Amino acid sequence: MASGAVISLIGIAFGILQSSLLPEIIPFGTVPDLALIILIAASWKQGSLSGEISGFLIGLGFDVMSLAPLGYHAFLYTLIGYIFGRLKDNIAPGAVLLPVLAVLSGTLIKYLLSFVMSLIFGLNSSFVQFFSTATIWELLENLILAPALFLLVVFISRLAEGKRGGFR
């Protein structure tokens, strides 16, 4: 569970990075969702409960930083953390193909849920706003970064776990 807290803190740090620094560096104003990729990887590695908790904390961090209604991102990221946490014991993520497919589906789920929530709560959003060329660029950036961030999460979770006790 300690690695779940570490991953949540890293996800929030990457969320702050992608919200504040990356828009100034990356041209055309499209920023990859680093926190989403980290959440998907961590949820897949640690399970649905850890994914839900990490998703809630990362989403709450986004809610505090943005003008969205409180709980908007927390709901999105909690649900995504749960969905990908259910894959823990069923499918091994591998090195490239499955992380890319997971990030592809996670990004599409995020945008689809955002659109449905905007319809339910009347957030004055249109379909075109959610699925535009900026969405496609973000999706491509997410797909390119997926394998590297999956490896980062595996490395960090191994460091956070430490050595297990037992006979020496």
Characterization of the model:
The chain is mainly α and 168 residues long. It has a single domain, classed as Arp2/3 complex 21 kDa subunit ARPC3 (Orthogonal Bundle), CATH 1.10.1760.20. The protein has eight helices and no strands. Helix 3 crosses helix 6 and helix 4 packs antiparallel against helix 5. The chain is globular, with a radius of gyration of 16 Å. The two termini are 24 Å apart. The model has no long low-confidence stretch (mean pLDDT 83).
Largest sheet: none
**Rounded average pLDDT:** 83
* Shape field: globular
The CATH C-level class name: Mainly Alpha
Helix count equals: 8
Give a short summary of the structure:
This protein is mainly alpha-helical.
What distinguishing features does this structure have?
8 helices
List the helices and strands and how they pair.
Layout: H1 2-20, H2 22-25, H3 34-46, H4 48-65, H5 72-85, H6 97-121, H7 127-130, H8 133-161
Helix pairs in contact: 1-3, 1-4, 1-8, 3-4, 3-5, 3-6, 3-8, 4-5, 5-6, 6-8
